[in-house]
Amino acid sequence: MLATLLSKIWCAPAATVPRPTPIGVSCLTRPSSESLAGRLAALQAELPPGCRLLAVSKGQPADRIREAVAAGQRSFGESRLQEAVLKQAELADLAPLDWHFIGRLQANKARGVVRHFGTIHSLDSLELARRLARIAAEEQRQPAVFFQVKFRPDPAKTGFDPAELCQHWPELGGLAPLRPLGLMTLAPLGLDEAERRVLFGECDALATQLGLPERSMGMSGDWPEAAEAGSTWVRIGSGLFGPRQIQ
Ligand SMILES: Cc1ncc(COP(=O)(O)O)c(C=O)c1O
């Protein structure tokens, strides 16, 4: 509550941003098909307009990504730099894919992530933002970034406090050559569906307030609520590929 209140005080007025068409919950069912191509097709059919699927291929071998590409998927999410770089090399014969980094980003991995990913969903501190901007300039790259925000106390997760994000927004929003695209959030374990809806709604409202067009919200277990709340990227791993094979 306090964070929400503070963010209202500190944040600049919202710019008008395009929003996906609202959807009804009734059309959102979890995919049940046995094949990867079938699950992809089912998910794509369920996502509302303006909401895209990030296939979280973390923990999956390159062959599974190849299979997903053959079924039409081009955007993939990875959490571990070394694992991703190996798979990118294995898949180099394919037309360029759209790689998103979604894991906790350690300072010493920042350069590698800037070199190997076009989009970063896990920008979780001012210090990391400054470092990424400096490295991106040196590498002559302009990664799109999502600021990871923690809307509820969760010792297992990092992220900006909403009020802190707003306080530093004048600097964070203008850290060229980074391209601020949106906010990313994760719902802590233990929230029920109604509580997750509220949380995703807060993320959507803060993104609107900051004039950011995208929201990265929703995973296998909660994507329908996230999509309904205005997510523009749902990050789905196990619900698509099954259990992760690489630990
Ligand atoms: C940040 C993030 N988003 C999405 C996912 C995908 O989760 P799931 O396999 O539950 O869909 C993961 C998996 O670890 C993750 O770390």
CATH names the topology as TIM Barrel
Any ligands, ions or cofactors bound here, and which? pyridoxal-5'-phosphate
The amount of helix comes to 25-40%
Shape: globular
Task: Work out the helix count.
Answer: 11
- Number of domains as seen in the coordinates: 1
CA radius of gyration is 17 Å
Task: Tell me about this structure.
The protein is α/β, with parallel strands linked by helices. The chain has a single domain (36-241), classed as Alanine racemase (TIM Barrel). It is 40% helix and 15% strand. It contains 11 helices and 8 strands. It has helices at residues 2-10, 36-46, 62-70, 81-90, 110-116, 126-139, 162-167, 169-172, 193-210, 223-228, 238-241, and strands spanning 52-56, 75-78, 98-101, 119-123, 144-148, 179-184, 214-216, 233-236. Helix 5 (110-116) packs across helix 6.
